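Example record for the data management plan.
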Amino acid sequence: MNTVRSFCIITAITAAFALSLDARADEQAIRRVFKSKVPNAQVIAVEKLHYADLYEVTVLGSEGYALFYTDALGQVILIGKLIETRTDRNLTEERLRKLSAIDWSQLPFQWAVTMRRGDGRRQIAIFSDPNCPFCQKFEKDLAAINDITVYIFPWAVIKPESVRQAKSVWCSKDRVKAWNDLMLKRVEPTAPTDCENPIEELVALGRRLGATSTPTWFLPNGEKYVGAQPMSTVVPVLDAAARRR
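Corresponding structural encoding:
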């Protein structure tokens, strides 16, 4: 009986060790494939997913993080988004937001055009260009939301006119009014543009934070979002972020 029991224990240990070796072998095989197929990017992690017998490969390139999916030996590479059918959650986007999250406390809020309504408990930081129609729509929709603090970082990247407008807003006596008049009413700011301002620094900052289009916006948990998403999507994530603070 003891012999049988010892044999079972040894067999179990051997099987576990073999599985461990297989897992390491799979990861090494996947890393070799990606090194040859995506030579200019760095493989940060290879993780087995708990569904679909897929591996998630996190890659860091010149434009930030990217996710790929593959089989155990790297025989096929899947490029796209994983959608959880039960909830319609975009699992790929959620994962990328966590990977690219910033340190909210390190944002230069002294450079923001800050608007506070109600108790201000919801918070959002937006990198916005004066000539971005999607930014204009997004800010117009946000203007109807109460109990919110909106930090606008003028991100003048679309055309040279954006730089002039952003500097003029910053040099205005009432920056909030000048910005809202420009974005919501298309009333040009009239202040001179020769005051000390952070507009060039904000362009560089946005790029360091991984902004590639306008609007790009962040929540207090550091997660990054892109585009003028509907308020039916925005308000719930604002509320969730506020509850976690």
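Summary line stored alongside the record: The helical segments are 2-37, 91-99, 133-142, 160-170, 175-185, 199-208, 231-244.
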